[in-house]
Design goal:
The protein is mostly helical. The protein has two domains: 63 residues, no CATH class; 104 residues, no CATH class. Helix content is 72%, strand content 0%. Helix 2 runs antiparallel to helix 5.
């Protein structure tokens, strides 16, 4: 009886189903993206180039590294895509239907796309509200038409949204009839698709 009570009182350890490597890499990508965006906003590249002979080595490294990393958006996209694929695979292993996962992907991606358009066209730094905030000293100088075209300006978040939608449909087709269990076949197919996309 005592042993049974002790056993019942012990906390049950839950096995973590998350990939720490993906979470860590995504966190690093976000932090570095924020840092590089701040540097890009504040660094006067033209002035550095005009006085390049008198600049410190750290400034020269910045001129080389910032364009190379490109804001680290590509790395963030790769991590996001990998996380999305892992999530879909786990849900399929749990027995969820292919149709429900495709609907979840398409709806989730569509909502993210609407959010991305609102950010770029209206509430973001480059959107209407951002432009208005930077023109508070002369509100009449605000370019009000920015929201009519800026919403479709393709940024990282737009890319992620479209990738979720398209990848959901592609993975749904590839997962029919239990084909999602053949991981080697899926890797080959995605490799071929990647080559086609890059070639186009």
């Amino acid at each position: 009886m005592i042993n049974q009570k002790v056993a019942r009182s012990l906390p049950v350890e839950r096995k973590s189903t998350r990939f720490i490597t993906l979470d860590f890499a995504r966190g690093i990508a976000i932090v570095v993206m924020l840092f590089l965006h701040i540097v890009q906003r504040t660094l006067d590249i033209e002035a550095l180039l005009n006085t390049i002979n008198n600049q410190a080595i750290i400034n020269l490294f910045a001129l080389i590294l910032i364009p190379f990393f490109g804001g680290l958006a590509g790395f963030f996209l790769i991590i996001s895509a990998a996380s999305n694929m892992v999530s879909m695979y786990k849900n399929l292993r749990k027995g969820k239907s292919v149709g429900s996962l495709v609907i979840k992907q398409v709806v989730g991606g569509s909502l993210l796309l609407v959010f991305a358009m609102l950010i770029e066209g209206l509430i973001g730094y480059q959107g209407l509200i951002g432009v208005f905030a930077r023109s508070l000293d002369d509100p009449l100088a605000t370019e009000w038409t920015v929201m009519l075209w800026r919403w479709n300006f393709f940024e990282t978040i737009h890319t992620i949204a479209w990738c979720i939608i398209i990848n959901g449909c592609v993975q749904g087709l590839l997962s029919l009839n239990g084909n999602w269990k053949n991981t080697k076949k899926l890797i080959v197919i995605y490799g071929i698709l990647a080559v086609i996309v890059v070639a186009l």
